[in-house]
From TrEMBL, chain B:
Pfam families: NrfD
Hydrolase keyword on record: no
Keywords: Cell membrane, Membrane, Transmembrane, Transmembrane helix
PANTHER family to which the protein is assigned, alphabetical: PROTEIN NRFD
Protein name according to UniProt: Polysulfide reductase
Sequence intervals crossing the membrane: 12-36, 56-79, 91-108, 128-146, 166-187, 199-222, 243-265, 277-301, 313-337, 357-374
Assigned protein family: Belongs to the NrfD family.
Annotated organism of origin: Thioalkalivibrio halophilus
Topology of the protein relative to the lipid bilayer: Multi-pass membrane protein
Presence of keyword Ribosomal protein: no
Location relative to the cell: Cell membrane
Amino acid sequence: MAKWGMVIDLDKCTGCQACTTACDMENDTLPGESWQDVLYYTEGEYPSGQMKWLPRPCMQCEDPSCVHVCPTRATYKDHDAGGIVFIDWDKCIGCKYCMIACPYGVRFFADEKPLVEPDLKEVFAGSGGQLWDPPGQSPDTDYRRGIGVQPKGVVSKCTFCYHRVKEAPEGVPDLDEDDPELVDYVPACVRTCPPKARFFGDLDNPASNVNKLIGNKNGIRLKDHTGNRPQVYYLGAGAGIPAFQPKS
Amino acid sequence: MTAQDNQSGNPALFTPMLYVGAAIAIIAFVFSGFMLMTQGHAAFNMDANVAWGLPISTYVYFALMSSGLTLLAALAMVFGFKQYYPLVKRAIWLAIITLVAGLAVLAMEIGHTFRMLWAIPLNLQVESAMFWMGVFYLADLIFLLWKFQRMERGDWSSKLSRQVGIAGFIAVVLAAGTLALVFGMMSMRPFWYDPTLPVWFYATAALTGVAGLVFFTYLSYGMNTERMPKALRMDMEGPLPRLFLILLFITLVMFLARLTTGLYANATEVNVVWADYLLASGWFHLGVWGGILLPFVLLLARGLRQSPAIQMLAAVLVLVGMFIERLYFVVGGQVVPLFKGTWERDLVAYVPSPTEWVLTVMGIALVFALYALGERLFNLSDMPQAEPGEAEAEPEATAEARS
């Protein structure tokens, strides 16, 4: 079985947020609760201040702290599904311990005050336990893997668009959006990226393009000191996070 | 001394306290339930930054007060300090009801309370500190109820009763310790990350336990030690306030050590939390200086220490101060924005919502109502009948302890 990984080249990323929008549309997330977003950072001060940005999906860690803390095993790492970390929405009790334990802040309760007005939970009131009924709701639903419109009282996260990836032919080293045979199986953020800054493939396959990029361009993992060992790698300058300093 | 002699239940106080407390708890439950049904968890002010807020800190407060009361009762039940026997039954009852209140608040906070009842036992995630916290607090509650039932039958020291007491002590040590580790093992939250956090939780648990016991004992007797059974009065004038003082001293020393290391640390997630969040808040200062230092000073002089009014004042200060400290502890681990970039340019702002406060009021009202119920149904000042030969020795021992 493949071990799916993502490579994000920060030298190519323009911070356009197309990936964020594609993710929102694909996964029917509420505004502001994007499973994948682009974070902006400022570093230094005038006149030498810099702006940096960093696309941030779930890192699908090899040793995920969120899995260890979950008291019900609702969060689990599925090695039969490429090592993706899922949340079983039928087991999640909404204790939010995984949100505390995730070093990357990529888990979303969403059953909270709206981040953007108007509150779409009121505009498109949810039925059948869903937080909301988005217009044109995606037909893909798999509660055991946290795929679909998020129900009330549970945590959600990026699934590497498993509902697409699972349909890919067995043994394929990379899912490249430029390959017409594979384009439908590529995660939404990778497929949409205008400057082609994202790559998706099998980290266990030495011939995969993602492995070559990581090897040839010194791919790094964020916050590697936490021991979580992400399956998402970054290339290029700026693949780090400035230490927090209050700005006021 | 018969059970009737010890009876402290004052119908003039406890009947209205029971009904008013129960009414407030029910109204608070209905209100917060209505808010959750209509608004979902948007009724709370928690979000992706501060996932755990006031309801969790209220749960931690009550759970640790319960643990502290059990530790206090263990002095007599497990370690043989017989001078504490007059306090044991009230301490156990208070431990039961504060744990119930804490669990009630927690149940209203989480996303799927009823799912928790089957999902946790059926999935046995033994790697999770939260799983073990649940297991040990459940065991703690069962042993507390069992021990109370034995005491109610007059069985204080049979082999079974002693074994239940020891089991309860072991359960509570593990429970409070794993509750600490729920926070203390989070290396991605440096403000909490601390292998010695269980020690801080034990010390402050014992402190709030003693404060709660002092508060409710004086409440039962209308601040009048003359109405108390002799052995209880001796406890309230000697060993208990002295234990109170020692626990205040230990807590104060540990707090100063935490404060110093926090401010000395270069790590932003630790230093900024102490300097720009905790110490920047007047409430936090009120909580720690008013809730630890001031009661410590008040109880330093023996004359003041024996005064019921001063003890009561110190107990109220500790109960309020540690409530504030728990809230700042729980929120403090989350105020440095995690991976938010310029979306959060400053420390995360969190103020509990009215529904969160109502949940806290529900917990407090539940404690008062259940305490009044306990006073009406049971003799909480009951203690073992002195065995032949002990009758003379015990007052001497207690008199020694007073000095």
